[in-house]
């Protein structure tokens, strides 16, 4: 299967013309050993035969990468897989531990209306299913409980059947596999594996032994998992190679921005947007749908214009000079602060801008200047827009139907301060006045007093050099002539 014992190894002759050879343990890998016997007579004629001995693992503790806790929570679920021939849950586990949702729980996933199914759902009667090779299972247990697994390994180059949509698959082998090798062995397979650890979903390029993950299939198909995909000491990469390959400047034909969504308890590191010269309108091979929602969820999705009821978690559109994405963060958590993070280090020195608009709080975030934004989600959805284009085009793209004033940044600041402002198209121009006050309420600076056209603007000033303000906490307010509303904020200068 992998490696050889050594070519030309002689066999010992025993009684009745029987030939024997004892295979050392070193000849076996995780699946077993493949051998070839060649018999040559005095005339030099030969005959050969090849066969395989497959390993059968005795009872051993289930491999878990995250140790069980005494008081486990939803974030402590793990996606497990058993690399053995089909076996019943009852024969493996219930003979040792009767099913008790206070001690351990087990779910499988079907990409139909049934979705997640618990092994024995309390109050609805038992749901019987078997452990199948190539499938993954959501599993949780309390500390102190030990589950043993055993069985015969699957045959090499295992063929996995997946259905169109989300599939919860499992590593069919008792060793780590490289998913990029699997993709190369299956033409048309572009999707990456999504794993779940400590309450967070992320892309990966490796699937560890006894572990599973989500795979989105664009059609019903078979996937060959070649033995050549074996990987030693697999390290799971947070972002799959296919995405890293076009983290380029915003004027490149292809570029991508990850939008990581995280709270104190859950993480969703799958969302992102960008452009690609080969992308098509609507869902294509560059896009991805969100993973199925489990008991507790936090996710980031983009509106799918062609299929509104099927949002995308990655939305790559055809390359263009400007575009607007509608983005939503959804959760069933109680009120909890959520952070959006992105990397802007590779945006490049060019005239393209990315602006994030918090629709619910009417905050504008310059994604070139900032790398995160915090907000609170409470059992529902929180909506944003992402605008891409030049400063001039954004003035029209972001033209609002009401005044929108963002938060000053960076905060704290060494002196350089920016304030995003959106002025509606109801008037051709507006007289804008920005003032700053110290903690006693005394006016200390008027950094901006000018006429601005309708559209998007970034007001910038240097509080240290321009106004000569010493370090400290200051309050600012913006007023628009002819309009009663005053926009206020505070900023720390160090």
Any chance you could write out the topology, listing elements then pairs?
Layout: E1 12-14, E2 18-20, E3 32-40, E4 46-54, E5 56-61, E6 78-80, E7 87-88, H1 89-94, E8 104-110, E9 115-118, E10 120-121, E11 125-126, E12 130-131, E13 137-141, E14 148-152, E15 158-162, E16 165-170, E17 177-178, H2 179-185, E18 193-197, E19 200-204, E20 206-207, E21 212-217, E22 221-225, H3 241-244, E23 255-258, E24 260-262, E25 267-269, E26 272-276, E27 298-302, E28 314-318, E29 323-331, E30 336-341, E31 352-358, E32 363-366, E33 372-377, E34 380-390, H4 391-397, E35 404-405, E36 416-423, E37 429-437, E38 443-453, E39 455-462, E40 472-480, E41 486-493
Parallel strand pairs: 19-25, 26-28
Antiparallel strand pairs: 1-2, 3-4, 5-14, 6-13, 7-12, 8-9, 8-13, 10-11, 15-22, 16-21, 17-20, 18-19, 23-26, 24-25, 24-30, 27-29, 29-34, 30-33, 31-32, 31-34, 35-36, 36-39, 37-38, 37-40, 40-41
């Amino acid at each position: 299967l992998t490696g050889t014992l050594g070519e030309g190894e002689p066999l010992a002759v025993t009684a009745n013309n029987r030939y024997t050879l004892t295979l050392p343990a070193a000849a076996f890998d995780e699946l077993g050993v493949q051998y070839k016997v060649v018999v040559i007579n005095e005339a030099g004629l030969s005959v050969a035969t090849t066969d395989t001995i497959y390993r059968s693992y005795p009872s051993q503790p289930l491999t878990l990468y995250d140790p069980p806790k005494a008081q486990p929570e939803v974030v402590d679920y793990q996606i497990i897989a058993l690399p053995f021939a089909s076996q019943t849950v009852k024969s493996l586990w219930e003979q040792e531990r009767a099913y008790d949702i206070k001690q351990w729980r087990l779910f499988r996933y079907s990409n139909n209306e049934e979705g997640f199914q618990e092994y024995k759902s309390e109050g609805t009667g038992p749901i019987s299913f078997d452990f199948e090779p190539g499938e993954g299972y959501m599993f949780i247990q309390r500390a102190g409980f030990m589950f043993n697994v055993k069985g015969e390994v699957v045959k090499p180059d295992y063929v996995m059947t997946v259905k169109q949509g989300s599939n919860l698959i499992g590593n069919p082998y008792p060793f780590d596999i490289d998913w990029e090798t699997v993709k190369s062995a299956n033409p048309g397979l572009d999707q990456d594996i999504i794993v779940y650890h400590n309450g967070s979903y992320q892309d990966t390029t490796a699937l560890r032994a006894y572990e599973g993950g989500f795979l989105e299939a664009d059609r019903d198909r078979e996937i060959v998992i070649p033995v050549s995909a074996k990987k030693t000491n697999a390290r799971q990469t947070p972002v799959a190679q296919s995405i890293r390959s076009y983290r380029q400047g915003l004027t490149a034909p292809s570029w991508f921005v990850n939008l990581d969504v995280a709270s104190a308890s859950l993480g969703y590191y799958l969302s992102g947007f960008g452009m690609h010269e080969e992308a098509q309108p609507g869902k294509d091979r560059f896009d991805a749908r969100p993973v199925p929602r489990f008991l507790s969820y936090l996710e980031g999705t983009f509106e799918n214009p062609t299929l509104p009821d099927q949002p995308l978690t990655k939305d790559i559109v055809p390359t263009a000079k400007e575009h607007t994405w509608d983005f939503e963060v959804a959760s069933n958590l109680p009120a909890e602060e959520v952070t959006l993070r992105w990397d802007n280090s590779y945006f490049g020195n060019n005239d393209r801008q990315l602006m994030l608009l918090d629709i619910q709080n009417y905050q504008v975030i310059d994604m070139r200047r900032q790398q995160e934004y915090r907000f609170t989600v409470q059992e529902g959805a929180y909506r944003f827009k992402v605008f891409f284009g030049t400063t001039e085009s954004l003035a029209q793209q972001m033209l609002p139907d009401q005044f929108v004033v963002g938060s000053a940044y960076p905060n704290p600041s060494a002196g350089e301060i920016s304030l995003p402002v959106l002025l509606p198209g109801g008037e051709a121009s507006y007289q804008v006045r920005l003032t700053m006050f110290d903690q006693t309420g005394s006016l200390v600076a008027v950094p901006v007093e000018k006429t601005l056209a309708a559209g998007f603007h970034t007001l910038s000033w240097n509080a240290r050099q321009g106004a000569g303000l010493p370090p400290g906490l200051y309050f600012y307010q913006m007023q628009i002539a002819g309009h009663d509303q005053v926009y206020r904020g505070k900023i720390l200068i160090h």
